[in-house]
Amino acid sequence: MILTDRDIRDALAAGLLAIDPPPPAEFYAPNGVDLRLDSRLTLYRAPAEGEDPVIDPAGPGYSFREAILAMADDIEIGADGFVLDPGRLVLGWTCEKVDLTPGARLAARVEGKSSLARIGLIVHLTAPTIHAGSTGRIQLEIINLGPRPIRLRTGMKVCQLILEQTLGVPEVGYRGQFAGQRAAG
């Protein structure tokens, strides 16, 4: 069951969910709440000369964090924004920290905003799920699939958080490789 704006406010008031900083009234939609883009982005760089460009996620000793550190750099979005060219993938973060209390029977999905999708901006490729018990800022896989460059600005509404009630309480809250993730820096 998807929570309505009223249900989301009730969950916040009851301490079943926390969004910090709290969203203003105009960020609520009938079935979700808007989240904003943080000032930090992770940009991928081309392989260095002689570097093996192949990523082997099923290979022995593979670590997502180590792979990203080896092929990407963090930047701050400046006052003029960051221009995302067509076909380019960057990692971003939400400004807001989202905490889903493990026993609250809540999970969430991060979804793009239709106004941005219609110009080609995608905010998650295949990873919309925010598991029950998750805490932290939400990392976004942002790609421009449109025909023109798109300017990203710190604080822009970039995605929606859709909250769902789970049928039960998970045995344990989320403890995967992204547990407690936070923006770099």
From TrEMBL:
Highest taxon listed in the record's lineage: Bacteria
Record-level Gene Ontology MF annotations: dCTP deaminase activity
Coiled coil: none
Keyword Hydrolase: yes
InterPro entries on file: dCTP_deaminase, dUTPase-like_sf, dUTPase_trimeric
Endpoints of the signal sequence: none
EC number annotated for this UniProt entry: 3.5.4.13
Protein name per Swiss-Prot or TrEMBL: dCTP deaminase
Phylogenetic classification of the source organism: Bacteria, Pseudomonadati, Pseudomonadota, Alphaproteobacteria, Hyphomicrobiales
Gene: dcd
